[in-house]
User: Fold these one by one.
Assistant:
Number 1:
Amino acid sequence: MKASGFAMTRDLPARHYLPFGIAALVLAGFSAWLGFDWQPALILAVLFVLSSAVLLTMACRPAIEIHEECLAIGRRRILWMDIRRPDRRTSGLHILHLQWRITGSA
């Protein structure tokens, strides 16, 4: 079996998640401060906190690396010989356009 020319492929979380998450958190604080005088601003504060939590969670996802000998997700390494088949997952949420469940030997 010949090896192809690549050594590794790496997928990192998008770089804009972290600054946008921090900006949403700052806007949540500002909206909460405005909420002391104007009550509808508290609705905005809650929405900003929720969007900030989602963005910061997505920013902290581990990197996915594809090596010739294994698949690495963060610190977890899965050897290719331990993977029986990748099963494509379909769900009602199409936010994550590609979801895979890895079926391996237990």
Number 2:
Amino acid sequence: MEQLSLKSYTNKSFLKECIRLIQSNEGVIKRDNVSRHFCCFFVPLHIPTKSIFLVHHIKADGWIPPGGHIDPDESPESTVTREFQEELSFKLTDEVMSLFNISPVYIEHPKTCVVHYDFWYSVLCKEPTPFVYEKKEFHNAGWFPIEKAIQMVKRDNEKNMLKQIKNRYLSSPV
């Protein structure tokens, strides 16, 4: 979290709220705090083709990067590794994973979750692997050019995160 405080694009007041939640006794995982808790999104990206992998999530009813809830006794990085295997049937080995931001996601039609405190990770993939996605959770999935991916996601927060990926990794030098 400290590395995020140094980034100019990080929402510092939200970061302070996250730190306060972590330091409180309210719980930071879904099991301990059903209405608000930490989750992880991860953005698989392939730099040579300037593309990222998105899933068409059934419950979210839209195209989003893959991700999930943090389990008990699990670090955010461990969550990304586990979720990558569960959702995309791919075991991360030497792919570079990097935390690049944290953001709130306010659930539009909450059944249990009201707000997610989302860690955002990039995962640099050597090849645009045709991942085998979890059909019970996703309608579809695939690699998309970054510009198209930004247009496909509905929520502004996710668009902004994908724009950060584009600016950090996929923009051509001027």
Number 3:
Amino acid sequence: MSKIFVFIFSIFILTSLSSSAAVYKGQRVFVKHCVVCHKNGQQFIASKTKLEWENIMNKKGEILAQIHINSKTEEAKSSKDYFKTKKYYKKSKHLKQFLMEYSKDSGKVPACN
């Protein structure tokens, strides 16, 4: 009986850890896909509060995707394809965590490296 409990508990712990968002993964997404247009990333991230970023990133970042897809600016043209992919929606939880971690009201500054 105790072996079954340990086994089930281990599976629960492992699945809960892998499904949570990671700030470092969100930073990787930001550097790879967002810095191209938002060159001064620190000022861009710190332009909104945690609540504002949370509202933008709700529903797997659908609002952020729509902002970029509907944008008429030249810079946004290169990112439109990315915001339509499953890859974006899969990684949006990490991006959300990163944006909220370094928002205007967090008092933190992301490292550049």
